[in-house]
């Protein structure tokens, strides 16, 4: 049995994608090739760290100690609602001027992995522009950071986890917002909503701070957009804990099978990976034929699926025109059934749930989860009214087919 190291998000993600790649990285410690996008991200992160750090001194939760380790434990906070004495005002920190920030950026710039000097210059200029805009926004509306680049450790169901968190802010209500900077080109709200990295960070913060996590945010640096999402509910936290347990079990029992996928294209270990060995000459033709046959069947399946959708639309239309919901032919019958579902715009229901303290009750902001709250007598009537006001009922029709011998299926 092998010892399981503390799992960081990147380690967890690497093992989940491909256990063999995890072994190459974390056991064999094989070097990886530098890449421009990693260097760019590291440079911007380092500059932001130096820029934001002085503001942590303003936080009512205390300053970040040097060394960057988890600086607070449960006992270190004053949890009483009103302190007996007014604490001394912290010294006002000095923020770097924009030119000073750019000087830091030049100093911390990582120049490896770019395709050419022109590529590096283009990225450097892009980063400088982002930092100028970040500076202007930050100075006009400063947040209340509690910690930056903070290393936290914790244990979940006996599994050690570890993370270095870009930033933790204090919210207006005195809770915590966990932020992770992203310098990628695109970032969606859905990514923020389902990010395992943010769920892991929530666990780390909850185990190290006594204040509640009120928001999990992927901060898209290119557009200065905080993609803010509610903290994960019990279901999502348990789901991640289960997957952490599976990864830990795999490492403990030394299961390092290759798991090829689209990500192989950016893997540094293809030259030594057994999945990328040459197929013997005598087998190539047979494999080529099988792959092509598979492709052809998939194409035909897709064509049939589209044709079915077209026929289903015509059946729906005919049913509407005729005013009947039962269409028959030689012993086969198609029944048309209507169901209504609640639909809620997430950005509108989020404040209602937050205000009512109901966020932990929903794993996702979808109609099914939220409509359960509408019929729950324990939810105050005023909150249910408010939720109802944000949602709308949407009709969905489905077709149920019953064949002459009783076989049946349902389609949308
Ligand atoms: S090439 Fe693919 S299968 Fe092989 S180690 Fe890398 S990710 Fe895994």
Explain what the structure shows.
This protein has 412 residues and is α+β, with helices and mostly antiparallel strands. The chain folds into two domains: 9-252, Lambda Exonuclease, Chain A, CATH 3.90.320; 322-411, no CATH class. The chain is built from twelve helices and nine strands. It has helices at residues 9-17, 19-27, 36-52, 98-108, 117-140, 189-194, 196-208, 234-252, 281-322, 346-356, 367-374, 381-390, and strands at 145-156, 159-170, 176-182, 213-220, 225-229, 326-329, 332-343, 392-402, 408-411. The strands form two sheets. Strands 1-2-3-4-5 form a five-stranded mixed sheet, with helices on both faces. It has a four-stranded antiparallel sheet with strand order 6-7-8-9. Helix 1 packs across helix 2 and helix 4 packs antiparallel against helix 5. It is globular and about 80 Å long. The relative contact order is 0.11.
What are its keywords?
single chain, 412 residues, alpha+beta, Lambda Exonuclease, Chain A, 2 domains, 5-stranded mixed sheet, 4-stranded antiparallel sheet, 12 helices, 43% helix, binds iron/sulfur cluster
Map the helices and strands:
Blueprint: H1 9-17, H2 19-27, H3 36-52, H4 98-108, H5 117-140, E1 145-156, E2 159-170, E3 176-182, H6 189-194, H7 196-208, E4 213-220, E5 225-229, H8 234-252, H9 281-322, E6 326-329, E7 332-343, H10 346-356, H11 367-374, H12 381-390, E8 392-402, E9 408-411
Parallel strand pairs: 3-4
Antiparallel strand pairs: 1-2, 2-3, 4-5, 6-7, 7-8, 8-9
Helix pairs in contact: 1-2, 3-4, 3-5, 4-5, 10-12
The structure holds iron/sulfur cluster.
Iron/sulfur cluster (SF4) is lined by residues 18, 20-21, 258-260, 263-264, 267, 269-270, 273, 275-276.
